[in-house]
Amino acid sequence: MRKLPRVPAGTDAPPLASRRGVLLGTAAAGALFAAGCTSNQNNEDPDTGRQPAGSADDEPGKEVTIGFAGPQADHGWLNAINEQARSRAEAYEDVTLVTTEGSNDIAQQSGQIETLINKKVDVLVILPADGKALTRIGLKAMRQNIPVVNLDRVFNTPQAYRCWIGGDNYGMGLNAGRFIGERLKGKKNAKVVELAGMDNLELTQERTRGFDDALKNYPGIEKVARQAAEFTVESGQKKMSALLQAVPEFDALWNHDDDQGVGAERAIEQAGRDEFLMVGGAGSRHAMDAIQADDSVLKATVLYPPTMAASAIDLARALGQSRGVGGLAGLEIPASVTCYSAVVTKDNVEEYLPTGFN
Is residue 352 part of a domain? Predict the structure, then answer.
């Protein structure tokens, strides 16, 4: 499902900038639709004035200024979101990206988006620090005829955005549970533990719900313990230590976040435990390197792909140029796009390595 409050802290990151862009504030891959949007050639339908779906999208078209506003990039995944948006915008000659500094303060981010609205950008891409609290600013942009692509943490009403694109938190848990279930299938009295994220976040609750639902299909497997961490290395190490002390022996661990997973790995190494397999979440480069090396308990990670930000730029460009999306019959872009939570293992890790974030 979709993220609502802010993603917890992780690594610091520089502010977002673009080759053709502008940074606002005090300090101021192929994406989903990379080849799937419609052409810039002058072949509009005379009745609709829109480009027909299914043609190429490589040639420059109408100039589009996209305003990008996200929270502070204090976590590896959020830094990757910024980088994906910037890189995708740079790939288009007809896109100018105007970005904010990013903030986890609701009032400050609201002011930054107000600045973008006052600059009269053509389209806004917004990853709100808090979707519910910032719904008002999405509504304001839409009422001023600036279409909004709502990225990941959803606003409180669809009236505040033209299109939502984000990850599938329930699907993350579901696919993690299925992977573990298949690996432990047939083992008697198999035990699993869960290192969750922040329990006050809906995204954490959805990841746990998906995981529990998947395990229902494997009656021989029991979840015997769960700890909630805070998506940081420090919290991951502390909470994993507690799990290891509470459960002398288990067969699998589902960790919600690869950043906190770094701490969890430290705790596991310090305890000298290796009788279980570990599945991570999000898709960091560190996790993928460990999976590829195959010399630790970490055997898989379930993606929450930051490439959704690149896809958001594609969607914003399509909106600014009054396009549909290639491969779809509709003349308009979809109202929502949910990214798939693929499971990265040793068998397919090379394919996903370019998407791994630091």
Answer: no
Q: By residue range, what is the domain housing residue 296?
A: 169-303
In this structure, the number of other CB atoms found within 10 A of the CB of residue 213 comes to 14
Same domain, 179 and 294: yes
DSSP label at residue 252: E
SS3 73: coil
Q: Torsions phi, psi of 66, nearest 5? A: -110, 125
Give tens-digit pLDDT for 271-327.
Answer: 999 999 999 999 999 999 999 999 999 999 999 999 999 999 999 999 999 988 777
**What separation, in Å, do the N-terminal and C-terminal C-alpha atoms of the chain show?**
24
Same-domain status, 189 and 141: no
Query: What is the Cα–Cα distance from 41 to 8, expressed in whole angstroms?
Result: 44
With 0.90 as the threshold, say if the pTM is over it: no
Q: What is the pLDDT of residues 52-78, one digit of tens each?
A: 333 345 578 899 999 999 888 887 898
**Residue 33, domain CATH:** 3.40.50.2300
Number of domains in the chain: 2
Is residue 336 assigned to a domain?
Answer: no
| pLDDT (0 to 100) of residue 232 | 92
CA distance 250 to 277: 9
B/e letters for 221-256, b = 16+ CB within 10 Å, e = fewer, are: bebbbbbbbbbbbebbbbbbbebbeebeebbbbbbb
- Of the listed ranges 53-62, 113-122, 195-204, 337-346, the least confidently predicted one is 53-62
Q: 3-class SS at 193? A: strand
189 assigned to some structural domain: yes
**Do 179 and 141 share a structural domain?**
no
Token pair belonging to 107:
């009032």
